[in-house]
């Protein structure tokens, strides 16, 4: 089987999307049958053809910052989005530009900063910002009952903004959540009540920004923090005396020295690639250059640099396994498709569309707080 480094070596820009308005591209989701969904800092969602990046439609309706987009697994014409406006919405991608087909809400005080859909498409979960300076909530709905499917909340496991919720890719009842309180929690939702459902609490020692399932059986959990820490845990060791931590560092930026002798400026995120069975982490320079790295028990190992694409910070990426292609989006409003042997149809690096006005306001950084509760050792 071709190794990950070989797959990445030939990547070059094949297509470049050029939006008319300046906006940050915050998250990308893939519909394998042909679409990309992109959430933007101006509260809109764009649909693109995944091969050409041509704009196929857009949705408006949210009144607050978006916290992600994801397609349903069994009904790929349904696209879900979550927002700080206190709603999770489902859109019919066969009808671009129409109002949301479904809407999910909870308490009016809830403002969502993360959400996800289970692999069975039966359960939606959203993580809230801290409410009244005290608690934050994991909110659950039955996705099959739009408008009336609120199942309940978990309220004891986090004490600050829940910045990420991620369902297990294969186990519909397994959920991981990360928060600015520094905790990453893992739940078995089949146990019902919150206290019984909590399987593990891992301490990231900082504000958690993203969580990713990985490993051959998806028993590993990668956490990146807002101050560029990196933590990799093995939940397969929960019932043993072995430590959960595979690798941990409070600052991963300098783990992989670059040609200029410095490290990356920030980490974009991580993804488990099932084909090569590797954990891919992408870092970047503020200039827009990207660095693709493998993460394992030895830390980060540079595989490939991608230069002359973006002109500022990259916010999101996805790996299209079927096409062995990479898609990236950033604060320069560009959506780029990188393929093996790709040749861009139009040449020339595009000027940054970053704005000094509204863009900063619409992309709020998460605050970093001191810890307010005890944590279980990892």
How would you describe this protein?
- This protein is mainly β and 378 residues long.
- The protein contains three helices and 28 strands.
- It has a four-stranded antiparallel beta sheet.
- A hairpin with a 6-residue loop joins strand 6 and strand 7.
- It is globular.
- The C terminus is likely disordered.
Q: What is the gist of this entry?
A:
This protein is mainly beta and 378 residues long.
Q: Strand arrangement, largest sheet?
A: 1-28-27-26
Q: What is the arithmetic mean of pLDDT? A: 89
Q: Oligomeric form of this entry?
A: single chain
Overall morphology: globular
Poorly predicted tracts of residues: 355-378
Total DSSP E strands: 28
Number of helices: 3
Helix content: under 10%
Rounded to the nearest angstrom, the distance between the terminal CA atoms is 35 Å
The helix-and-strand class reads mainly beta
- Estimated share of beta-strand residues: 35-45%
Q: Quick one: biggest sheet?
A: 4 strands, antiparallel
Compute the gyration radius: what is it?
20 Å
């Amino acid at each position: 089987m071709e190794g990950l480094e070989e797959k990445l070596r030939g990547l070059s820009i094949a297509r470049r999307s050029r939006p008319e308005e300046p906006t940050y591209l915050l998250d990308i989701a893939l519909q394998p049958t042909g679409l990309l969904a992109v959430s933007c800092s101006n509260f809109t969602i764009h649909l693109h053809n995944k091969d050409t990046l041509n704009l196929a439609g857009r949705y408006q309706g949210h009144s607050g910052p978006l916290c992600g987009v994801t397609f349903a697994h069994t009904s790929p014409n349904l696209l879900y989005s979550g927002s700080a406006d206190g709603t999770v919405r489902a859109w019919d991608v066969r009808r671009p530009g129409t109002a949301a087909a479904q809407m999910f809400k909870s308490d009016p005080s809830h403002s969502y900063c993360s959400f996800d859909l289970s692999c069975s498409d039966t359960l939606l979960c959203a993580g809230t910002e801290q409410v009244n300076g005290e608690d934050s909530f994991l909110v659950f709905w039955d996705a099959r009952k739009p408008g009336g499917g609120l199942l309940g909340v978990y309220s004891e496991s986090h004490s600050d903004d829940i910045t990420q919720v991620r369902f297990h890719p294969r186990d519909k009842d397994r959920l991981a959540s990360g928060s600015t309180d520094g905790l990453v929690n893992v739940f078995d939702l089949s146990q019902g009540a919150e206290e019984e459902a909590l399987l593990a609490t891992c301490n990231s020692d900082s504000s958690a920004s993203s969580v990713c399932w990985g490993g051959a059986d998806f028993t590993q959990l990668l956490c990146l923090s807002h101050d560029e820490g990196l933590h990799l845990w093995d939940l397969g060791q929960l019932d043993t005396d072995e430590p959960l931590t595979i690798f941990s560092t409070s600052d991963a930026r300098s783990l992989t020295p670059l040609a200029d002798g410095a490290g990356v400026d920030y980490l974009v995120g991580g993804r488990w690639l099932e084909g090569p069975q590797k954990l891919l982490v992408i870092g970047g320079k503020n200039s827009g250059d990207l660095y693709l790295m493998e993460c394992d028990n030895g830390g980060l190992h540079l595989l490939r640099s991608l230069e002359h694409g973006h002109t500022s910070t990259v916010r999101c990426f996805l790996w299209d396994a079927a096409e062995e292609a990479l898609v990236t989006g950033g604060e320069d409003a560009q959506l780029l498709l990188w393929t093996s042997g790709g040749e861009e149809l139009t040449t020339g690096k595009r000027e940054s569309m970053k704005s000094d006005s509204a863009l900063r306001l619409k992309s709020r950084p998460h605050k970093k707080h001191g810890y307010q509760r005890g944590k279980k050792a990892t």
